[in-house]
Amino acid sequence: MCCDLKKRFLLLYATQKGQAKAIAEEIWQQAGAHGLEADMHCISEMDKYNLETEKDPVVIVISTTGTGDPPDTARKFVKKIQDTTLPPDHFAHLQYGLLGLGDSEYTFFCNGGKTVDQRLQELGAQHFYDTGLADDCVGLELVVDPWIDGLWLALKEAFLLQKEKEGMSSDAVPSSLSAALHVGHELNLSSEVQNLKLEDERARSSDVLTQKPVDIHLAASTRDTEPSLVHSVPPISQSALNIPALPPEYIEVQFQDTHGENPHLSSLISEGTTFEVPVTKAVQLTREDAIKTALLLELDIADTVFDYQPGDAFCVICPNNVNEVEELLHILGLSEKGEYFVCVKVKQGTKKKGAAHPQHIPERSTLKFILTWCLEIRAIPKKAFLRALVERTSDAGEKRRLQELCSRQGASDYTRFIRDSNVCLLDLLRAFPSCKPSLNLLIEHLPKLQARSYSVSSSNLNQPGKLCFVFNIVEFPACPARPVSRKGVCTGWLAELVAPLLHPNKNSLDTKGGSSSTEKISIFARPNNTFHLPADPSVPFMMVGPGTGISPFIGFLQHRQKLREEHADWEFGETWLFFGCRHQDRDYLFKQLRCFLENGTLTHLKVCFSRDSSTAEVAPPKYVQDVIRLYAKEVARVLLKERGYFYICGDKKHMADGVNDAVVDILSMEMEADKLEAMKILAMLREAKRYLQDVWS
């Protein structure tokens, strides 16, 4: 009995969008095959575990949200362990291993995991297994899979060492025997560990697929030498495969009648109060021949209590594309059932640990409502989903290829043909026509349809009762793995929604033109606690916002202009704006920036155009980071001498990182310090909330 207890470990997860939970569930499932029992809980369920008295090893899987915060489910836990009155040996008894999830596109990579890891170390806890940091930018599985593979041996060694400690603390072995026993124990421990390694190899190989590889591949001839989504080449096409364990099904769907009403959209949102507001204006900011199409929408919030500051963001609740929903219903063979209400329940007797009704699925709604408003049907399928789809695929060649894509051997193919190609469930079902998943599998494996976040591009002070925002219509061109082009879920829907406002006479029976009815959208606030104007108006600040990254700065400038009008006696610091786009005549989004310059709201406006040709002897700078370097002394003066603020908004990978490098170089040059020292100064500016970013990947 004692031995059985020793094989338990505590498994905690902290998730924002379900990723960390899915990985924890994978660990829980594999634990049994290794003779271990995982006691799994969400880290927020602090009434179900107690780290202060925990004697068994602890495994933590934790994601990162926002610009480096722990997920919402971990906030109470983090607050508790960050109590400064806790002694440095508070967790001296604790052995743990931690897997952090993050995205290196963002500055504070895996900061949620790093925060917890560092604090546990400060409180005396010991690693029994090295911390893993998985990067969603290149594929979480590149770190997650080997980390889980190595976990089992680390856990078993931790149990053996724990057993050894307990043996050493038992009452008095005569000293004459002690050394001999210790040597004997070391040899015994070594052989036990060796046995565990062999046992571990056997457990690992238990999920190896040993069937003979299929000779015929979908849409492939013997001449094909290049792999694709549906076709593999040696060595993978001739390999035995390590595939994940089949996830246990846990959802049951019952069709009812067609009578009743769907729940209100507000019931799908737990983040705050939702407001249904009319779209009163739509303007295309770019020319028709611009590479990207940018729209500005104005919302009427006068009849609501919705409040915001310039720099805040808000979320739009959006549906999936109606044609994609219809196609999915058709493939599932449920076209006739779209308007039927369904009851979703947890399957009795399921083997899934902690199976619960998904919070984002209503207790009762129509099938079409679930597929339209609740499930992210565009989500990139996880390997566990592919594994489940294998069982629903009848063609042998298609089945084998899906097995390859979810296998350890097929990791690079999964990254190339699914992850990097942005392949979704519909793409897979088109490519593998014999795959016919059940509705419950979709509900089990597709994540919640997330509301989309946008920066506010107006000032309530300047335009009371109005809220503006700017966005590019996201385009996903066709590619070999995904032969159908498509638009972004939310931006495509918004563009279609406001088409009557953009083209009032097009396809209209109304001879006067215009739209007879005002379209409404549902929104909720997502306040930003830091990306705001300086509290002291006399403090100077610099703004960097190429493309639609200029959006929040329009709100900044409108707000500053109104303050200048209302408070002529106030002192206002200088303001800089660095803006860039491809072509001056096609996508210079806000040419009225000149007005801010002329009335003194904006002190300096610096623009660049990356695709315009120049006849000048010295070519002008192409990108905002290049322009910033031309004003090195001014940047250093504002940041270092005048304690000003520096704001960046826009694309992270292709712009914000470049701006970051430029600022480091400027600080290094102007301070006559090495690059490392300059990076430390920049880190201090971030810490002081004077170097602020609102970026996306």
TrEMBL record:
Q: Which cofactor does it need?
A: FAD; FMN
Q: Which residues cross the membrane?
A: none
Q: Name one GO biological process term.
A: folic acid metabolic process
Q: Looking at the Swiss-Prot or TrEMBL record, what is one Pfam family this protein matches?
A: NAD_binding_1
Protein's cellular compartments:
Cytoplasm
**EC code:** 1.16.1.8
Keywords, sorted A to Z: Amino-acid biosynthesis, Cytoplasm, FAD, Flavoprotein, FMN, Methionine biosynthesis, NADP, Oxidoreductase, Phosphoprotein, S-adenosyl-L-methionine
Q: Where is the Flavodoxin-like domain?
A: 9-152
Q: Does the keyword Mitochondrion apply?
A: no
Q: Which reaction does it catalyse?
A: 2 cob(II)alamin + A + 2 H2O + 2 H(+) = 2 aquacob(III)alamin + AH2
Which residue range or ranges hold the FAD-binding FR-type domain? 272-534
Q: Which GO terms describe its cellular component?
A: cytosol
Which Gene Ontology molecular-function terms are recorded? [methionine synthase] reductase (NADPH) activity; flavin adenine dinucleotide binding; FMN binding
Q: How does it assemble?
A: Forms a multiprotein complex with MMACHC, MMADHC and MTR.
Do you know which PANTHER family this protein is assigned to? METHIONINE SYNTHASE REDUCTASE (PTHR19384:SF84), NITRIC OXIDE SYNTHASE-RELATED (PTHR19384)
Q: Return the protein name.
A: Methionine synthase reductase
Organism placement in taxonomy: Eukaryota, Metazoa, Chordata, Craniata, Vertebrata
The gene designation is: Mtrr
